[in-house]
Amino acid sequence: MTTQHRPQVIRIARAAALLAATLALAAGCDGEPPAGHEIRINKAVGVASFKITCTRDLWDRTSHPEYGAESFDDAKPRKLAGAQGERGLVEITLTGTQLVDYLDQLAMDIGGGLFARGEDKPMAQRMYAAIAPVVDRIQKDTPPTEVPVATVDDAIAPAGPEASPTAGIRT
User: Fold this and answer.
1) What is the pLDDT of residues 92-101, one digit of tens each?
2) Is the pLDDT of residue 56 over 70?
3) Around Cβ 73, how many Cβ atoms within 10 Å?
4) What tens digit of pLDDT does each residue of 66-87 get?
5) If you average pLDDT over residues 152-166, what whole number do you get?
6) Structural domain contains residue 159
7) How many helices (H) and strands (E) does the chain have?
8) Are the C-beta atoms of 106 and 62 separated by less than 8 Å?
9) Among 35, 40, 104, 171, which residue has the least CB neighbours within 10 Å?
10) How many domains does the chain have?
11) Is residue 6, in this structure, part of any structural domain at all?
12) How far apart are CA 118 and CA 19, in angstroms?
């Protein structure tokens, strides 16, 4: 290599290093999955079916089938009847392998992976927090007595006299 080509080679090497660092950050290499994720994946894969109850928009925002996870086309949300339906709740039934894909998608959104949608992180965290304890209770190689169900339907506690919006305010 001649001396005149050396600056060009250095610029190319710097550009390549910058590109590699950018790709590593974009891929979420520093993002960690939630604690216990691999154990949950191993439990989830053996489940015949798993139900999730949540609002339709929460499911739509967190499922991302267009990002390469196995398709959730056959896991269509079913509107619930009664008071739950009036609150906009739906039920989604996933197979074990679909649950694995969904948990991985949520973990990626939480940890900042390459296809993570940062604006969906709080929703992914809430959904993962609802599903994780249910999956944690699954016992491998034990026939289920019922289909596991994770529900995201938070409510406000009934207000008491002390919860008045003007409590403690002097007029």
Assistant:
1) 999 999 999 9
2) yes
3) 7
4) 555 556 778 889 999 999 999 9
5) 62
6) no
7) 6, 4
8) yes
9) 171
10) 1
11) no
12) 21
162-to-104, 154, 155, 165 alpha-carbon distances in Å? 43, 21, 18, 9
Residue 107: which domain range?
Answer: 24-145
Contact 54, 152 (CB under 8 A): yes
Q: By C-alpha distance, which of 128, 114, 132 is closest to 63? A: 128
* pTM given for the model: 0.71
Report the SS3 class of residue 157. Answer: coil
Write down the residue that tokens 């409590």 correspond to. Answer: 167
3-state class (DSSP) for residue 155: coil
Asked, for residue 51, whether it belongs to a domain, the answer is yes
Is residue 137 in a domain? Answer: yes
CB 93 within 8 A of CB 75: yes
Q: Summarize pLDDT for 12-46 with one digit per residue, the tens.
A: 656 554 444 444 444 444 568 889 999 999 999 99
Count of all residues that appear for the chain in the document:
171
127, HSE (Cβ side, Cα atoms, 13 Å): 29
